[in-house]
Design goal:
The chain is of the alpha/beta class. It is built from 12 helices and 13 strands.
Length: 328
C-alpha cells in the first residue's frame, strides 16, 4: 500500500486521536498539530513514539506552514466546540473555526497536498424539517458554534472550486466513544452521564428523554475520514452517521441508574438522524459499530471520565443561562 504523510489538526483530541490510530494501523506517517485547549497528550501516549506531535495553534498563521512540507493528506479537525461558550465568546469561535480553517487551507494549498478532509458538523442543519436528513437539506445554524463550523465548510468547498483543491467535507453526527472530552464547559451527553454514573448521581435528562440522536461511534467516524482521503471525490459534502437514531431514555437504560429531568432547551432538535445514502453509494463507507456495542465499549473504558465534572440540575441551570437567554 502507498504510504502517505498525514497531518491531523486537533489530533490529540477525541476524534483526532482515533483517526491517528486508524492512520497508523494502515502504516501511514502522522504529524499532529494541537494547542491542547481541548486535546490531551495522554490521548496519544500509547503511540507517542510513532507520531510527530507539535503544540501549535491554527490561529498562528506564520507558524503553520513549516509543518505542511511534504504532507500528502490533511485532516482538519481542530476547532472549538460546545454551544454555550460559542454564545458567550463568538469572537474566539470565529477566530478558531473560521480564520483558523482559512490558515490551514492556505498552508495546505501552498504545500500542494493531495487530499484535504474537513470535519464539519451536523449542527449546520439546525432543526431539520425532514428525517433522515440529507446533505441537500436547508442550512439553518442555531448558534455561533454551528455557524462557524458551517463557514469553515464554505471555505473548504470554495477552495476546492476556485483553487482546484482535492478537498471535501464530512458532517459528523453525535460522535461518542472512549476519549471524549472530560473537562471544560457543560456539553455532550455522554461525558455528562458517565461522570454522573461514576459519582453515583442521577442522570440529568433534558425534557422527557424521548428526543433521539444519531449516536455514531468514534472509530466509524475515523474510518470515514480515511475512506474520504482514499477517494477521488472533491468539492463535495457527506453526512457521517450511524444509520439510526436512539433516544436518551434508551441510553439511560443501557448505562443503568436513576435519572432526573431538567427543562427542554431552545434551539435543540427533537431528533438528529443522518441520511447516509450518499456516502454509502459514492465512497463505499458504512458504519460498523452498533449503538449498543458502542455503549458497551464506553462502559469498559469508563475510568477515563473519573476526573470529569459531575453536573447537577442546579449547576446545569447556571451554566446554560446564556443558552436560554439568547436562543429562546
Amino acid at each position: 500500500m502507498d504510504i502517505k504523510r498525514c497531518l491531523v489538526t486537533g489530533g490529540a483530541g477525541f476524534i483526532g486521536s482515533h483517526l491517528v490510530d486508524a492512520l497508523l494501523e494502515q502504516g501511514h506517517e502522522v504529524v499532529v498539530l494541537d494547542n491542547f485547549i481541548t486535546g490531551r497528550k495522554e490521548n496519544l501516549e500509547h503511540c507517542s513514539d510513532r507520531v510527530a506531535l507539535h503544540e501549535v495553534d491554527i490561529r498562528n498563521k506564520t507558524e503553520l506552514g513549516k509543518y505542511f512540507k511534504g504532507v500528502d493528506w490533511v485532516f482538519h479537525l481542530a476547532a472549538l466546540a460546545d454551544i454555550v461558550p460559542s454564545i458567550e465568546r463568538p469572537d474566539e469561535y470565529f477566530q478558531c473555526n473560521v480564520d483558523g480553517t482559512f490558515n490551514v487551507l492556505e498552508a495546505a494549498r501552498k504545500s500542494g497536498v493531495s487530499r484535504f478532509v474537513y470535519a464539519a458538523s451536523s449542527s449546520c442543519y439546525g432543526i431539520p424539517d425532514t428525517y433522515p436528513t440529507a446533505e441537500s437539506s436547508p442550512i439553518l445554524p442555531e448558534y455561533p458554534y454551528a455557524l462557524t463550523k458551517r463557514l469553515g465548510e464554505e471555505l473548504v468547498l470554495h477552495w476546492a472550486k476556485v483553487y482546484d483543491m482535492p478537498a471535501l467535507s464530512l458532517r459528523f453526527f453525535n460522535v461518542f466513544g472512549p476519549r471524549s472530552r472530560t473537562h471544560g464547559t457543560y456539553g455532550a451527553v455522554f461525558g455528562v452521564f458517565l461522570a454522573q454514573k461514576l459519582a453515583g448521581k442521577p442522570y440529568t435528562v433534558v425534557g422527557d428523554g424521548e428526543q433521539t440522536r444519531d449516536f455514531t461511534y468514534v472509530t466509524d467516524i475515523a474510518h470515514a475520514c480515511l475512506t474520504a482521503a482514499q477517494s477521488d471525490c472533491a468539492g463535495e459534502v457527506f453526512n457521517v452517521g450511524s444509520g439510526g437514531t436512539y433516544s436518551v431514555n434508551h441510553l439511560v437504560s443501557l448505562l443503568g441508574g436513576e435519572k432526573v429531568h431538567i427543562p427542554k432547551r431552545p434551539g435543540e432538535p427533537d431528533c438528529t438522524f443522518a441520511d447516509i445514502t450518499k456516502i454509502k453509494e459514492k465512497l463505499g463507507w458504512s458504519p460498523q459499530v452498533s449503538f449498543e456495542d458502542g455503549v458497551q465499549h464506553v462502559l469498559e473504558n469508563i475510568d477515563y471520565w473519573r476526573e470529569a465534572p459531575v453536573w447537577t440540575p442546579a449547576s446545569i441551570e447556571d451554566a446554560t443561562k446564556s443558552w436560554f437567554e439568547h436562543l429562546s
